[in-house]
Amino acid sequence: MKTYQIELLNRSQQVITVAEDQFILDGAEAVGLRLPVGCRYGACVTCAARLIVGEVAQPQAVALKPAQVALGYVLLCVAYPRADCQFEVGLESQKDLYVNPFKGSAGHLSSRIGASDGDSK
Predict the structure, then answer these.
(1) pLDDT (tens digit per residue) in 43-53
(2) Could you give the dihedral angle defined by the CA atoms of residues 70, 99, 91 and 7, in that order, rounded to the nearest 10 degrees?
(3) Architecture of domain 3-120
(4) 46 Cβ neighbours under 8 A, 6+ residues apart
């Protein structure tokens, strides 16, 4: 069975060995590392990490949107390594994961209100 070196970057750096048939999160927990986790079956994004280098298979990662996958996000609870990998984990990795739907719309809204006020005069 193949194994891969998985590097987890946060405030510190950890390198673990994970088998090709083992979820990366399970491999981390097996050596005593504690990472954020929620559902354990790919339906939330609590365990999301950003893949910097490497390749994974994550067919059960239903919580990730295509845009998040394009940014390199992986759900460690359902990700199998397919090469040596390097991940950014924890809060640092999740800065672009969540999108505030109201960010930037306040200016747009106020400009429409202003246009409306101008029309009524």
Answers:
(1) 999 999 999 99
(2) 0
(3) Roll (3.10)
(4) 36, 37, 38, 39
Question: d(Cα 78, Cα 41) in Å, to the nearest integer?
Answer: 6
β-sheet bridge partners, residue 9? 13, 88
The two tokens of residue 81 are 């390594």
Domain positions in the chain: 3-120
The reply to whether the predicted model has a pTM over 0.70 is yes
Instruction: Using alpha carbons, select from 115, 55, 117, 45 the residue that is nearest to residue 84.
Output: 55
Q: How far apart are CA 33 and CA 26, in angstroms?
A: 10
Element (H, E) at 16: strand 13-19
- Residue 42 CA: distances (Å) to CA of 39, 57, 80, 86: 7, 12, 12, 20
